[in-house]
Amino acid sequence: MNADDQKQAAGAAAAALVEPGMKVGLGTGSTAVWFVRALAERRLERLRCVPTSEATAALARELGLPLAELDAVGTLDLTVDGADEVGPGLALIKGAGGALLREKLVWEASARCVCIADASKRVLRLGAFTLPVEVVPFGAKSTVNRICDVLSEFEIGALPRLRSREGVPVRTDGGNLLYDVACGRIDDPAALGAALKSLTGVVEHGLFLDLADEALIATDAGVERLTP
Ligand code: 5RP
């Protein structure tokens, strides 16, 4: 099984958790795409789906899934989403797809959050994958200087790198900038997350801690279910 087959298997396993009438959060990224496709194939009645990005919204619309605004549904029964790293206790790094802010809002509104991933995403310690930090454009350089101060307090020497595509800074769905930090290792994710979040210009970061209720990790031997 290659990684894409595993993503498909994890997506299908998560789609089997959805029941008619549920309010469902739809994640973002290549693994979440498999979930959205598998969910649409089930043709369940009375679903209301809240997408975590414009990209997911477009796909769900194309597949005929009924969409709703987060504020219109209030709380969700289930959210299914991918991750860039799945660490001990189901601590996650997310945000390579740039949707971390909407993802976190949707996760926090959900009674049950299921992370889906291929086997390569499992790690013993977070930080090998870059950590995204979403920053408001106004005064971004000052905010980045303050992010560097926080990183050095945590003995992380890496400089935040502005995410860009073909030389143009990437903007999130909320119009903000993304800075990726190659931490290397994150020894205290909760403390680092809290320190980053305390900075005024930081909108959100990609550490998802104490949010995932379970993870469905696809391996060559089948889909493994992990709990915190
Ligand atoms: C998007 C995300 C994605 O869920 C995460 O990057 C995993 O993506 P993929 O399933 O493509 O590996 O957090 O913001």
Structural class: alpha/beta
- Provide a count of the helices: 7
**Strand elements, count:** 15
Share in helix: 25-40%
Q: Low-confidence parts lasting 5 or more residues at pLDDT below 50? A: none
Characterize the largest beta sheet: strand count, sense, and whether it forms a barrel.
6 strands, mixed
Order the strands across the largest sheet as they lie in space: 2-1-3-6-14-15
The rough form would be described as globular
Question: Rg from C-alpha positions?
Answer: 17 Å
Q: What is the CA-CA span between the terminal residues?
A: 26 Å
Proportion of residues in extended strands? 15-25%
- H and E order: HEHEHHEEEHEEHEEEEHEEEE
Mean pLDDT across the residues is 97
What do you see in this structure?
It is a single chain. By secondary structure, the chain is of the alpha/beta class. 31% of the residues lie in helices and 24% in strands. The protein has 7 helices and 15 strands. The protein has helices spanning 3-15, 30-42, 54-62, 70-73, 100-108, 140-153, 189-197, and strands spanning 23-26, 48-51, 78-81, 85-86, 92-93, 113-118, 131-135, 161-162, 164-165, 168-169, 177-181, 202-205, 207-208, 214-219, 222-226. The strands form 4 sheets. It has a 6-stranded mixed sheet, sandwiched between helices. Strands 8-11-7-12 form a 4-stranded antiparallel sheet, covered by helices on one side. The mean pLDDT is 97. Ribulose-5-phosphate binds next to helix 2 and helix 5.
